[in-house]
Write a structure and sequence with these properties.
Helix content is 37%, strand content 18%. Helix 2 runs antiparallel to helix 8 (181-190) and helix 4 (87-97) runs parallel beside helix 6 (121-127). The chain contains eight helices and eight strands, in the order E-H-E-E-H-E-H-E-H-E-H-H-E-E-H-H. Helix 1 links the parallel strand 1 (5-11) and strand 2. The chain has a single domain (5-190), classed as Rossmann fold (3-Layer(aba) Sandwich), CATH 3.40.50. The longest helix has 13 residues, at 18-30. Nicotinate mononucleotide binds at residues 10-12, 41, 44, 46-47, 85-88, 111, 118-119.
Length: 198
């Protein structure tokens, strides 16, 4: 079998929303990816200043959100490894699982801006090609990033963040149509985000 082109969409997904799904779908189409693997983080070390929802809740919401798309899947590598999540470990694990395939790591403009602060950043660009996508409120650029290892792509602007979704739920405001219906129902069923957000 020839090498497949696998997108990797890493995120805290607390909760997953339509901004994530639109970005992944448009990148999948633009780059002719065979599959996009969503990878919910274990503990995101750069979000240590706030309480993050249980990994199993974030994982299940991501499964619900992606289930209807045949080229989307969800991996537990970061959750099952445990501890703090570093993308270098994510990509090492996926490379071991899919040794013949090509990996494309998808990040929003805000995450790409921080990438030089990530662990073992030099190795990251050997493990995968990086795809930075536009996000309202952030500048997308590849200054100081290795040439030929990063592509920048404009995607449909979705001014949605997990933070505003959590805040809306906490205030009792609707989140319908900001994320798939099943995720809205899961949040309600599990009573997520009902405490004031820090
Ligand atoms: N609306 C969006 N448009 C494009 N990319 C996005 C959007 N929201 C998130 N992303 C990207 O998806 C990835 C995972 O994001 P994450 O799970 O942290 O969501 P978030 O909305 O940024 O969360 P929070 O508000 O809690 O920081 C990151 O690379 C991020 O840049
Ligand atoms: O490897 C790192 O040091 C690192 C630091 C911050 C974020 N990341 C990854 O970037 C992705 C988006 O992270 P976040 O915090 O914006 O949800 C997710 O897969 C994280 O594991 C990775």
């Amino acid at each position: 079998m020839s090498a497949r082109r696998l997108g990797v969409m890493g995120g805290t997904f607390d909760p997953v929303h339509n901004g994530h799904l639109v970005a992944a779908s448009e990148v999948q189409h633009r780059f002719g990816l065979d599959e996009v693997i969503f990878v919910p983080t274990g503990q995101p070390w750069q979000k240590a200043n706030r309480a993050v929802s249980r990994a199993e809740d974030r994982y299940l919401m991501t499964v619900i959100a992606t289930a209807s798309n045949p080229v989307f899947s969800v991996s537990r590598v970061d959750i099952d490894r445990g501890g703090q999540t570093y993308t270098v470990d994510t990509l090492r694990d996926l490379r071991a699982e899919y040794p013949d395939d090509e990996l494309f790591f998808i990040t929003g403009a805000d995450a790409l801006e921080q990438i030089l602060t990530w662990r073992d950043v030099d190795e990251l660009f050997d493990l995968a090609h990086f795809i930075g996508v536009t996000r309202p409120g952030y500048q997308l650029h590849d200054h100081h990033l290795p040439q030929g290892r990063v592509s920048l792509v404009e995607v449909t602007a979705m001014a949605i963040s997990s933070t505003t979704c959590r805040e809306r739920v906490q205030r009792g405001e609707p989140v319908w149509y900001l994320m798939p219906d099943g995720v809205v129902r899961y949040i309600d069923k599990r009573k997520l985000y009902t405490q004031p957000q820090s």
